[in-house]
C-alpha cells in the first residue's frame, strides 16, 4: 500500500475533527474521499502533509510512519498537495509560483525538467508565464495550483476540492487533467464535495461524515449505493 491511514484522531482545541478514521491508497490508483462541508476532508489531507498533528493513530507512507515528519520533508518523500481554494501567490507571476513548487527539488536541472513537464501538461500556463497569478481565471488558477504541486514530481498527489467554484465545463477539463496525471503514474487522493465527478474518476471511495468513515468501497458500487445517491448525488 502506498498510503495507509489507521485510526487517525485529530482535534482543534476541543473540536474533534477526525474520530479514528482508517483508509488506504493503493499505488497507481485514484482514491476519492467525499463528504459534506465540515466532514474533515481538508483536515485529513493537512494531517497527511504534516501541517496538522494527529492526537493518535498512524499515517504510513511507503512503509514508513510519517506522523511526526515535518511538511518540507513530506514533500521530499514524494507527497504534494493542491490546497483547497488554490492558494496561489496572487502577486507573483505564473513562473514564480511554479518555481516555489520546485523549492525542495535538488538541482536546477531537475527544476528545469519539471517546469518543461508542467508546461507540456498545461500549455495555457506557458502562454501566461509572465502574468501575475492573481489575474488568472479560476480555472487557470486551479491549473497553476496543480502545476505547482507537480513541480516536486510527487508519487502521491493530494487534491482538495479541485472543482470548487468552477463552471461545469472547466470542471470537466480539470477532471480530464486529473485522469491524465494519474495515467502518467501519479497516485491521487482526491477530496471532493462533487461526489458525482469524484466517483467518475476514482477506483475506490470513502465517505466521510463528521470525522468518521461512514461508507467505503469501489467507486462504481458507491455510485449505485442508495444512501450515497440520496445524500451525495442529489437524488
Ligand atoms: N483551524 C481550525 N481551527 C478550528 N477548527 C477547525 C479548523 N479547521 C477545521 N476546523 C473544524 O474541523 C472540522 C473539519 O473541518 P475540515 O477538515 O475543514 O472539513 P471539510 O474539509 O470536510 O469541509 C470542522 O468542524 C471545522 O470547523
Ligand atoms: Mg475542506
Automatic annotation (TrEMBL):
The gene is livF_1. Gene3D superfamilies: P-loop containing nucleotide triphosphate hydrolases (3.40.50.300). This is High-affinity branched-chain amino acid transport ATP-binding protein LivF. GO terms for biological process: L-amino acid transport. PROSITE patterns: ABC_TRANSPORTER_1 (PS00211), ABC_TRANSPORTER_2 (PS50893). Residues 3-235 form the ABC transporter domain. One of its GO terms (molecular function) is ATP hydrolysis activity. Keywords: Amino-acid transport, ATP-binding, Nucleotide-binding, Transport. It comes from Pelotomaculum propionicicum. Belongs to the ABC transporter superfamily. The keyword Nucleus does not apply. InterPro entries: AAA+_ATPase, ABC_branched_ATPase_LivF/BraG, ABC_transporter-like_ATP-bd, ABC_transporter-like_CS, BCAA_Transport_ATP-bd_LivF, P-loop_NTPase. The lineage of its organism: Bacteria, Bacillati, Bacillota, Clostridia, Eubacteriales. It holds the Pfam family ABC_tran.
Amino acid at each position: 500500500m502506498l498510503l495507509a491511514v489507521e485510526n487517525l484522531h485529530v482535534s482543534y482545541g476541543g473540536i474533534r475533527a477526525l474520530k479514528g478514521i482508517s483508509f488506504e491508497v493503493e499505488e497507481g490508483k485514484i482514491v476519492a474521499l467525499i463528504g459534506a462541508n465540515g466532514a474533515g476532508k481538508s483536515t485529513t489531507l493537512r494531517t497527511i502533509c504534516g501541517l496538522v498533528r494527529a492526537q493518535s493513530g498512524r499515517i504510513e507512507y511507503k512503509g514508513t510512519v510519517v506522523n511526526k515528519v515535518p511538511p518540507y520533508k513530506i514533500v521530499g518523500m514524494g507527497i504534494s498537495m493542491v490546497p483547497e481554494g488554490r492558494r496561489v501567490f496572487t502577486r507573483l507571476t505564473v513562473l514564480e509560483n511554479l518555481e516555489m513548487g520546485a523549492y525542495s527539488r535538488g538541482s536546477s536541472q531537475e527544476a528545469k525538467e519539471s517546469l518543461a513537464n508542467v508546461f507540456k501538461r498545461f500549455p495555457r500556463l506557458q502562454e501566461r508565464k509572465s502574468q501575475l497569478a492573481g489575474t488568472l481565471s479560476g480555472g487557470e488558477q486551479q491549473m497553476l495550483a496543480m502545476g505547482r504541486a507537480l513541480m516536486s514530481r510527487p508519487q502521491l498527489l493530494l487534491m482538495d476540492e479541485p472543482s470548487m467554484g468552477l463552471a461545469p465545463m472547466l470542471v470537466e477539463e480539470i477532471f480530464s487533467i486529473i485522469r491524465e496525471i494519474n495515467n502518467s503514474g501519479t497516485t491521487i487522493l482526491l477530496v471532493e464535495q462533487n461526489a458525482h465527478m469524484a466517483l467518475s474518476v476514482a477506483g475506490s471511495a470513502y465517505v466521510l461524515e463528521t470525522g468518521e468513515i461512514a461508507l467505503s468501497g469501489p467507486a462504481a458500487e458507491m455510485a449505485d449505493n442508495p444512501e450515497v445517491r440520496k445524500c451525495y448525488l442529489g437524488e
